[in-house]
Amino acid sequence: MPPPPPPPPGAMATGTAIHAVPCAAGQPKRKTHRRGASSLSVRASTDAASTVTLLDYGAGNVRSVRNAIRHLGFGIRDVRSPEDILAADRLVFPGVGAFGSAMDVLTRTGMADALREYIRRDRPFLGICLGLQLLFDSSEENGPVSGLGVIPGVVRRFDSSKGLIVPHIGWNALEITKDTQLLQGADGHHVYFVHSYHALPSDANKDWISSVCNYGESFISSISMGNIQAVQFHPEKSGATGLSILKNFLSPNSSGSKVSPGRKASNLAKRVIACLDVRSNDSGDLVVTKGDQYDVRDHSSSKEVRNLGKPVDLASQYYIDGADEVSFLNITGFRDFPLGDLPMLEVLRCASEKVFVPLTVGGGIRDFTDANGRYYSSLEVASEYFRSGADKISIGSDAVFAAEAYLQTGVKTGKSSLEQISKVYGNQAVVVSIDPRRVYVKNPEEVPFKTVKVSSKGPLGEEYAWYQCTVSGGRDSCPIGAYELAKAVEELGAGEILLNCIDCDGQGCGFDIDLVKMVSDAVTIPVIASSGAGAVEHFSEVFEKTNASAALAAGIFHRKEVPISAVKEHLVDAGVEVRV
Ligand code: 1PR
């Protein structure tokens, strides 16, 4: 079961609308740690047309949906009771969490019946992700469990037994099968999915289907019937295309969509991710920095922390430039406490108001006792990151400790940060960031870790290497290899792996293909290749030679050496599917 529901950010009494006070350009305010609503002002609104009712039953983060709705100029009225559902003029239902616990909450609160009645009256409804799945008869997630039973059919897990990477995370273009106004402008454009379960198309539900998509098999990506709409993808995280879909629901016009018949769904696009390593510089300002093999201090006599820009400004720019995701890594999180006197949460709040693609944040996710003796669990730290606008959190050092303990005992205690956070928020929301260093060996028998035959021999002519994991930003090495860590964290509930390489970081010589291939062949969760991008060709190389689902870069984007658009254009020319 999810933890006690956090108060929805921007919670409000029925009849008032909340509007965000925009963050000052690129400048997060310091010392504001109130939950969610720190930068919100409330004003009364009588204009029903500009207010949308949001069903947030408290099982997870719907801040991104709130931000997107506000960005489009609409106010939000939160559902407090079943009556609020029936009184809604326009209802958005962004289901989050697991199917079973969502149905429990909806049934217990009387909202399931209110939803069925609202839908029966054909009132304007938009379900998102789990908000689509719950409309069906049942789901195999935690079950079988009965759903709302509005649409005939079942929801099933993607089958990873034949190597399909699950969760399905990333961008696909849809095959639109019904001329619906909601999808106007979406034809041929990629939208963002993140899910492990999917609704199956069948003869019994074919009249509901407005688009399908492919991932291992065909699944329902949207439904439409009268005023009832639902989408499996996340419009609030699908860039400009997603915002226009959301707008089509919020302020419909009378013209229908013009769908060119026959356009097939695309394959899953490879993602290009911009990463911002963030820390305080010597003057105490939070800056984006960039290391050479993790050393972020200037090599001149000043030895200052390199300052490559303001976190929110850069994140917003990368969103505009076409990044498929933006990651913030709080690189001194291992020694500073992220919920302490640090403006990182405010950076996240401000960035999430401007960046409508997924935002990941990492650094410092672990149990912590502050100077006053107050204990914070890693789940609380992660929850605060989610409430502040993160779509995914990334765990570094603590995941190494959890994997070491698991490999020693063979027992999943359920107590590690990784297990706890993925249980509550779903494994698609939990990334494990690996910081390995190459260790050459003459003979694979020398070490009890998985080795690879390296493409370039070591300094003493060694033909093999293993990749030793580190913690605390590369400062301490641990007796575990990247291969062993990746497999262990997959079992413990990681949904994705961010695979750095200290040797390649900031070198611009390309990704460590040997490492990325070894790890991406070993797991069935997505692997993000990171460290070493120096030219557009490095991106096509990593996608052609490995099973990486995404490639991340930092330095070349910060120094404006290679724009994101050039990477995408190159990948298109190389025949790699990307979101353009
Ligand atoms: O251990 O849970 O507190 O998490 C700390 C996080 O901070 C980890 O994800 C770790 O990777 C990151 N981190 C810690 N120290 C550094 C550092 O650089 N001194 N940054 C650091 C890791 C690596 C990448 C970088 C790529 C691409 N940075 O994120 O962005 O290597 O760079 P490039 O394209 O310029 O080559 P915890």
Structure description:
There is one protein chain. The protein has 16 helices and 31 strands. The chain has 580 residues and is α/β, with parallel strands linked by helices. The chain folds into two domains: 48-250, Rossmann fold, CATH 3.40.50; 270-433 and 483-574, TIM Barrel (Alpha-Beta Barrel), CATH 3.20.20. An eight-stranded mixed beta sheet has the order 4-3-5-6-16-15-14-11. The chain has an eight-stranded parallel barrel with strand order 17-19-20-23-24-29-30-31, surrounded by nine helices. It has a four-stranded mixed beta sheet with strand order 8-7-9-13, with helices on one face. Residues 1-22 and 25-46 have low confidence and may be disordered. The structure holds ligand 1PR. The site of ligand 1PR has 33 residues, from strand 17, strand 23, helix 10 and strand 31.
Give a topology summary.
Blueprint: E1 16-20, E2 40-44, E3 51-54, H1 63-71, E4 75-78, H2 82-86, E5 91-95, H3 99-108, H4 111-120, E6 125-129, H5 130-133, E7 136-139, E8 145-146, E9 151-157, E10 168-173, E11 175-176, E12 190-195, E13 197-199, E14 209-215, E15 217-225, E16 228-231, H6 239-250, E17 271-280, E18 286-289, H7 311-321, E19 325-330, H8 344-352, E20 359-362, E21 368-369, E22 375-376, H9 378-387, E23 392-395, H10 397-409, H11 417-425, E24 430-434, E25 436-441, E26 452-453, E27 464-471, E28 476-481, H12 482-492, E29 496-499, H13 513-522, E30 527-530, H14 536-545, E31 550-553, H15 555-558, H16 564-573
Parallel strand pairs: 3-4, 3-5, 5-6, 6-16, 7-9, 17-19, 17-31, 19-20, 20-23, 23-24, 24-29, 29-30, 30-31
Antiparallel strand pairs: 1-2, 7-8, 9-13, 10-12, 11-14, 14-15, 15-16, 17-18, 21-22, 25-27, 26-27, 27-28
Helix pairs in contact: 7-8, 10-12, 12-13, 14-16
Residues 275, 277, 290-291, 294, 296, 329, 331, 333-334, 362-365, 394-398, 433, 435, 473, 500, 505-506, 530-533, 552-555 line the site of ligand 1PR.
